[in-house]
Write a structure and sequence with these properties.
CATH superfamily: Aldolase class I
Number of domains: 1
Distance between the termini: 21 Å
Shape: globular
Organism: Candidatus Ozemobacter sibiricus
Radius of gyration: 17 Å
Family: Belongs to the triosephosphate isomerase family.
CATH topology: TIM Barrel
CATH architecture: Alpha-Beta Barrel
EC number: 5.3.1.1
Strand order of the largest sheet: 1-2-3-4-5-6-7-8
Strand content: 5-15%
CATH class: Alpha Beta
GO biological process, one term: gluconeogenesis
Number of helices: 12
Subunit structure: Homodimer.
Bound molecules: phosphoenolpyruvate
Order of helices and strands: EHEHEHEHHEHHHEHHEHEH
Largest sheet: 8 strands, parallel, barrel
């Protein structure tokens, strides 16, 4: 099954409103000819509205980098699924390694967020990936499958295929040390095989699985040549419109 590639920008905690607007204005002409793939920007919360306005009537998709699972309430500093929908977000990154390892998010919490995102019509981009010490102990497969299994717990069978999974080895994120195309391929094949064994070929064939971790214009094509890699989740190299346009037009 031909899946539509997805190239997603994770801006992390970068940019001002003006910088976000300038980015979109600079990006649009560079990707105007692109029709066969999805382009997604996930700005920090305070920039979502500005990016939404700048991308209106364009094919650029909009997402957030995190959310809380409750709809509203006494949760100081948190943002809910209904709020993101209200801002016209279509996607939400969940379980990013920085959320797991800087902010202590557990698989159980991430799963609650995944379920809440789905309830509110947001497409979760669930990130999974091993730390360097886990890789060195040959625990990569176990870690990926465990995070995946717990992260998608109770997700309805008919929804799994509409989700996005990002394989992001922690040691490759923001380090300049990208995974080899073979390692990314093998991890993504493992994820698809797990989904296939659990939910069948309909879900496994439909599910988009991205690679993330020091993706740059120079290495993007090597990933996209691999069978099963449906796109990239990009941090550092997504901050500059020139560089992100090169990733989109790999
Ligand atoms: C990320 O933030 O998801 C990421 C992969 O970052 P970078 O591309 O900078 O490694």
């Amino acid at each position: 099954m031909a899946r539509r590639p997805l190239i997603a920008a994770n801006w992390k905690m970068h940019k001002t409103v003006q910088e976000a607007k300038s980015f979109v204005a600079a990006l649009l002409p560079k990707i105007a000819a692109v029709r066969d793939r999805d382009v997604l920007i996930c700005p920090p919360f305070p920039l979502i509205h500005a990016v939404d306005q700048a991308r209106r009537d364009t094919p650029i998709l909009l997402g957030a980098q995190n959310m809380y699972f409750a709809d509203s309430g006494a949760f100081t500093g948190e943002v809910s699924g209904p709020m993101l929908k209200d801002l016209h977000c279509e996607f939400v990154i969940l379980g990013h390694s920085e959320r797991r390892w800087v902010f202590g998010e557990t698989d159980e919490l991430i799963n609650k967020k995944v379920l809440a995102a789905i309830t509110h019509g947001l497409i979760p981009i669930l990130c999974v990936g091993e730390k360097i010490e886990e890789r060195e102990q040959n625990l990569t497969e176990q870690v990926i499958l465990n995070q995946l299994d717990l992260g998608i717990k109770n997700v309805p069978e008919n929804v799994i295929g509409t989700m996005v999974i990002a394989y992001e080895p922690v040691w490759a994120i923001g380090t300049g040390r990208n995974a080899s195309a073979k390692d990314a391929h093998d991890a993504i094949a493992l994820i698809r095989e797990f989904i296939h064994s659990r939910f069948g070929s309909g879900a496994a064939d439909k599910l988009r699985i991205l690679y993330g971790g020091s993706v740059k214009p120079e290495n993007m094509a090597t990933y996209m040549r691999e069978e099963g890699i449906d796109g990239a989740l990009v941090g550092g190299a997504s901050l500059d419109p020139e560089s992100f346009a090169k990733l989109v037009t790999y």
